[in-house]
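Re-running Nudix hydrolase domain-containing protein to confirm reproducibility after the cluster update. Everything else is unchanged from the original entry.
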Amino acid sequence: MTDRPAPPDRIRPIAIAVVRRDDGALLVTSAVDPATGRTYVRPPGGGIEPGERAAEAVVRELREELGVEAAAPRRLDVVENVFAYGGGTFHEHVFVFRVALAADAALPAATDAGHPVWWLPADRFDDPTIDLVPADLPALLADPLEP
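Result of re-run:
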């Protein structure tokens, strides 16, 4: 949902930002799989560059793609994501961070690498018409320890 997935013979490290509103809604970006028509949604973020730490990558990605400054990234988990998209199979290691944004951050009137960014209400986390990814994310978001 940002740039293209890594080639199928590589594992791509990415960092994503969990941003929640007071009502529990999650900031997400979305894309439609051209092979299946399924809509995939995930928190904004993107690839980790060589020599860059995951926490630095998530701050950079939010600045570059959404024009917002993230502060105090706190790693919630690292999950492995193997998925099909566009007729291929891909593999990612996903660093999931909780981040703070300024109260006046202009969201979601932006796009993440050309994909729409919007608020997904908490009651749609298990909506069968969309796929919230990575697959382990809904359980992580339901964790009572996750503020």
